[in-house]
Amino acid sequence: MRVDRFLSNLPRYNRQQVRLLLVEKRVRIDGKVVSDPHSEVLEFSCVEVDDEVLQVGKAARYFMLHKPPGCVSATRDPQHPTVLDLIDEPDKDDLHIAGRLDFNTTGLMLITNDGAWSRRLTQPQTKLPKVYYVETEQEIGAQYAITFAEGIYFAFEDLTTQPAQLELLGPRSARLSIVEGRYHQVKRMFGFFNNKVLRLHRESMGLLHLDNALKPGEYRALRTEEIHLF
Ligand code: URA
Fewest CB atoms less than 10 Å from the CB: which of 39, 73, 82, 171? Predict the structure, then answer.
């Protein structure tokens, strides 16, 4: 939210007073004086006027989880365990998932309370490459890589998938990099060849790789440099 709106939403200031506060350089966001009314106040920002703290600013939290099979990418589910059940942190209700995985898909999952960060990561314009290890029922033919690179028409959404890179690892295993996150995207891409995906594991999102030290079901906080990859 813009700082002028943030301040004038408080009962104590009207718009004219807010303008003055900014001109007189009495407002600070995260310790820095701001005079531009467009300056952004995030839920994580500390906002001060003179020496009074008007918003303390929540701590932003970021985790990577090694998602095991058999759990739902949701914060709540009436039937099945959810990925949030695996997280033992205070204020879990503030957390959400940045990029879902299917029930039996395993691998890298990011969890945060920072909505702007997760939006940046998941919005289609970002075209963040996501790399999956895939095992299939039938052999993966040479045509697959060509077709995936050209894009596949998804009638339900009436769109053609963005070019994707396929690297064959064995007769029935491959590594696939996609820049979108359509519903069941990888399974539907292999489904184009009537080839069922038996195992699906997300290895990386952008430059962030699943930490090898994490066993299925384990998680850890992201390091500062990992948070700044997005
Ligand atoms: N594509 C799928 O089909 N499933 C996933 O979980 C992720 C990508």
Answer: 171
Common-topology check for domains 3-55 and 62-221: no
Q: Is residue 36 among the annotated active site residues?
A: no
Cα dihedral across residues 87, 92, 95, 96: positive or negative: positive
| Domain spans of the chain, in order of start | 3-55, 62-221
Query: Does residue 84 have its Cβ closer than 6 Å to ligand 1?
Result: no
User: How confident is the model at residue 51, as a pLDDT?
Assistant: 86
**Measured in angstroms, how far is the CA atom of residue 191 from the centroid of ligand 1?**
12
Out of 77, 85, 94, 102, the active site residue is 102
Question: Is residue 101 in contact with ligand 1, taking CB distance under 6 Å?
Answer: yes
105 within ligand 1 shell (Cβ under 6 A): yes
- 10-20 tens-digit pLDDT: 999 999 999 99
Do the bridges between strand 96-98 and strand 106-112 make them parallel or antiparallel, or are there none, so unpaired? antiparallel
> If pLDDT is split at 50, 70 and 90, which confidence band does 103 have?
very high
Contact 75, 113 (CB under 8 A): no
Answer whether CATH 3.40.309.10 is correct for domain 3-55: no
Q: Which tens digit of pLDDT belongs to each residue from 29-38?
A: 999 999 999 9
pLDDT at 163: 97
Domain 62-221 classified CATH 3.30.2350.10?
Answer: yes
